[in-house]
Design goal:
Layout (H helix, E strand, L loop, with lengths): L1 E8 L3 H12 L4 E4 L16 E3 L9 H19 L4 E3 L2 E5 L4 H12 L6 E2 L1 H7 L10 E5 L3 E3 L1 H12 L3 E2 L4 E5 L2 E5 L4 E9 L5 H4 L7 E11 L14 E7 L2 E5 L8 E5 L17 H14 L7 E12 L14 E3 L5 E4 L10 H13 L19
Parallel strand pairs: 1-2, 1-12, 2-9, 5-14, 12-19
Antiparallel strand pairs: 3-8, 4-8, 5-7, 6-7, 10-11, 11-12, 13-16, 13-17, 14-15, 15-16, 18-19
Amino acid sequence: MRTCDVAVVGLGLMGSAALDALLNDGVDALGFDPVGPGDSRGSSHGSCRVFRRFNFENDNYTDLSDAALAGWMRLEADSGENILMPTPVLEAGRPGSAMVAASRAAAIARGLADPAWPAAAANREFPAFALPPDWDVVVQDGGAILKADVALRVMRSRAGKRAFQETARVDCRPDGVLLHTKTQVVLAQRAILALGPWLGRALPGIASVLEVTRQAVGWFRPARPEAVLPDHFPIFILERGPDDVVYGFPDFEQRGVKAASHNHGPKVDADDWDPPATDAELLPVGTALAELVPGAAGPIVDRDICLYTNTLPADRRPDKGEEFIIDRWPNSRLIVASPCSGHGAKFAPAIGEKLARLAVDSTYEVEPFFQLSRYSAFA
């Protein structure tokens, strides 16, 4: 039987960041995941995610973004790889958009100049857009295209022989956490579960506050290819109405404009990746591009499926749901991570540090809005 101080089960962006933080601190840690980097069935698969410094979801996220930015920059410096491609972030919505107002307030709260733009000015600066003249618009600096595939490959490479491409079954014991794989048995003093949509399957007690949804993603052949290149086109998040948000990226891979709906798709099982995204699923995205970003609109040239793992609204403190869980599992040696819901990837280095500290420092507690105790079932 092999032993270690901490085992990390699930090596997507969050688990890999936690393992990287542990190994950087000299902790005897091992990682396990049956899915290798780049596999289309991993919840962190795909080439890119959005990095935003100023976040409309939670007033506390800007500090988390700052910590994550420092972590990404350290990883770039250590590896010599480019992980963040600086890109403006344009957020827009109908008059009175709560999303745009919250993003604007987050930037102003940090002492920055007001990022609000007239819609007409945004259309002139980024000629692929045709935003209605009365829409609210902010254009934020400090954003970037997060090259998720590069980040994942770098972190897994840094772990070397301490990362195993194997499924690990977890059994809690009084003296530790026993992990069974096809080739070995490991006794860890603590274990971090960063299993994305599979978390509720591995830990049934948490399934009641999680919801997994199917999210269709498409790449569109742009009507104006020259207008959607990174130097001329921002990351965008467009709020067309309640529960109607579309986001997208510049064509930085010469693959087309990647765009998707941020609205929750149908509830699915953690293994429901098929069939591929359908034309019907991507129709609302294509319609939004044709209406608001006509320079990016065009035929679908590629498609994919992502799974969101969403937390349900809490009942003990204000929380509308879609918030992260980063906490110790009650009466056990487990630490659980569910930083998903379509807006967690950018925070991976900061969340990885939190998970590592929870595993090695018994006095450390995360912020209350990340804790399980916001749910009565775990209070």
